[in-house]
Design a protein that fits this description.
six-stranded mixed beta sheet; alpha/beta; EC 2.4.2.10; two-stranded antiparallel sheet; transferase; about 210 residues
Amino acid sequence: MIFNKDTAEKTAELLLQINAIKLNPGNPFTWASGWKSPIYCDNRLILSFPSIRNYVRDEFAKNIEKQFGKPDVIAGVATGAIGIGILVAESLGLPFVYVRPEPKKHGRQNQVEGFLQKGQNVVVVEDLISTGNSSLLAVEALRNAGANIKGMAAIFTYGFDVAEKNFKDANVDLYTLSNYSNLLNLAVAKKYIPEEDLITLQEWNINPAAWKQE
């Protein structure tokens, strides 16, 4: 679910402007999973544009507090959400921790890095949601460390049905600054893509695993 429509449209336009999101139905990208995709999203680029990262920071901070109440801690999912997560925590005047994909192999073997007390309320910040699997592994690690997860806030989601199911099954409320449907509407309206590409982009979103698999 998006925080609100105005933010969703503005965020989508900013991501397109800096090529953090690229749309290319005629020459699809190949994801690490092997899926073919007409879209590629790299939200790490946001950090290189001060005005845009400040916009994302401010929208996160405002909407997180409005939707979830002010938590005790902000947690970022490594590595893509560490930078923006720190900015959000700083804006809210809160502690910050981050979650590794798996525990370290040496030293204290931490998976959650930073100071976290059992029972603290945590909002998790993520940069991108596809299936939600890696994001929810971070939630599981935080819960295992004793955190009370208030919800997750992400910059962008592809809006896959499987992600919605995964978050529902994990009992995690997910809110995003923007999503795929708002992106497509904005991209057509602002002529980032021709209208005839819209059907192809919508078809991919319905069944991404099978799209252009031959």
